[in-house]
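User: Esterase, Slackia equolifaciens:
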Amino acid sequence: MGSSTTYRVLNAADDSSSVIYVIDSAKHPFGIAQAAYGCASTVVAIPIANWNDALTPWPAPGFYEDEPWFGGHGDETLKNLLNHTIPKIEADLDMCRTTAQPALHNDNAGSIRRAICGYSLGGLFALYAFVNDARFDACASISGSLWYQGWMDHLRETTEKLVSSGSVDPDRPGKQDRYAFLSVGKKECKSGLPLFRCVEDNMHASADLLRTVGCRVDAIVGPGNHMQHIPERFEAALAELDEFLARP
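Assistant: Predicted structure for Esterase:
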């Protein structure tokens, strides 16, 4: 649900060894071409329809009692991206890496490096995709909806399983060479909707949990509320992802 093989190339890099996928809005595309311009990585926007259903990882109550629930079809969207959309894009752009490698702790990721980036529910989805599939080497959750019911429990359970299984060594930070950029506006925790007020605390808690499984993490609190400074936030996220993917 939600994903298709439609896409926009925001920046076509000469070097095809890294690509940043931006989760975009089908109805109101983000105006971030300028932010993507000049990146060493190719930057591709993938429009997703019906965010409340397609980008949420499991069903959860809506904002108010009389509103529909979030649909929770994120797994289906992720599978469509990995099995159909991304392979088509990389074939069209003459890239060589396949997408046949699951699992968060898989270090043998191939020759092309990928990042996934999103805003709001797109940021929640980007982080969910990164946590659950190692085919993404990096992610950016920009003003991500980390208030979403069940998110912290899911991340805590996922990271605890990896540590207890011996798949990662918490005493060797960064050994997996994976990176997460998390950001939020300083006014977002003061939202009039109580559900949103935990978003900054949850961002920092998510960062701490990701570090326990060896991820490099930047957690940034910037100016403004959820709907402000969107181009600037994308520019900062893309720059950090691009720099990380360019590392040898």
